[in-house]
Amino acid sequence: MVKYTLEKAEINDRQALFNFLNVCLSLKLEKETMTISDQLRKEGYEQAITIAEQLSQEDIQQGIQYEKLLLQRLIIKRFGSLSSAYEEMIEQASSDTLMIWSEKLLDVKTLEGVFSND
Question: Where in the chain are the domains?
Answer without folding.
Answer: 1-44, 58-118
